[in-house]
């Protein structure tokens, strides 16, 4: 079995997403129980859950981009077939790549701006730029998945359409 960096990235990202979701749920449950039973809240829960949500989202995007399984509106898909369908597919894909590229660059810029300003999380005492940088790296990994997966997916659709004819 050949080594594939993309499979390793997918495996790592999926595990990170699951762990982030579990930790987020655990912190929320502990915070609610603490507030209701002991009248004491976890001061850091909002910050940690926010961080974990971003980590879960961007690490989960690797699989979503790879399988092209995000939410789409497919009401007109049956009309977009053949060459016109391929043109529409690639136009949408290029727009998606453009916007996601802008998002990844923006998150990296935000990390740098936070570094320059010296932002610190209120309750955690952690420098924000470090957390944002981790999220930016996860977004970059998801961007790689977006670039790698789209052409293969569309070729599979073309072969399925040809087989059904």
Automatic annotation (TrEMBL):
Give the organism, scientific name: Marinobacterium zhoushanense
Does the entry feature the keyword Metal-binding, yes or no?
no
Entry's transmembrane regions: 12-30, 42-61, 87-109, 129-150
Q: Which residues form the Tripartite ATP-independent periplasmic transporters DctQ component domain?
A: 24-146
Q: Which InterPro entries does this entry report, sorted A to Z?
A: DctQ
| Name listed for the protein in its UniProt record | TRAP transporter small permease protein
Give the record's keywords alphabetically: Cell inner membrane, Cell membrane, Membrane, Transmembrane, Transmembrane helix, Transport
Q: Give the family from UniProt.
A: Belongs to the TRAP transporter small permease family.
**Membrane topology type:** Multi-pass membrane protein
What job does the chain carry out? Part of the tripartite ATP-independent periplasmic (TRAP) transport system.
Subcellular location as annotated: Cell inner membrane; Cell membrane
The record describes its quaternary structure and partners as: The complex comprises the extracytoplasmic solute receptor protein and the two transmembrane proteins.
Which Pfam families does the UniProt entry name for this protein? DctQ (PF04290)
């Amino acid at each position: 079995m050949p080594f594939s960096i993309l499979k390793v990235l997918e495996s790592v990202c999926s595990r990170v997403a699951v762990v982030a979701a579990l930790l987020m749920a655990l912190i929320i449950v502990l915070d609610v129980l603490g507030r209701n039973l002991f009248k004491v809240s976890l001061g850091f829960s909002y910050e940690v859950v926010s961080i974990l949500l971003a980590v879960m989202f961007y690490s989960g995007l690797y699989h979503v981009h790879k399988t092209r399984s995000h939410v789409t509106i497919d009401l007109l898909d049956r009309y977009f077939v053949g060459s016109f369908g391929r043109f529409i597919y690639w136009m949408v894909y290029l727009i998606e790549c453009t916007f996601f590229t802008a998002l990844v660059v923006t998150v990296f810029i935000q990390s740098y701006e936070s570094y320059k300003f010296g932002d610190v999380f209120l309750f955690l005492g952690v420098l924000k730029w470090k957390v944002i940088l981790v999220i930016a790296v996860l977004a970059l990994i998801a961007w790689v998945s977006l670039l790698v997966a789209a052409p293969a997916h569309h070729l599979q659709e073309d072969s399925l359409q040809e087989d059904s004819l």
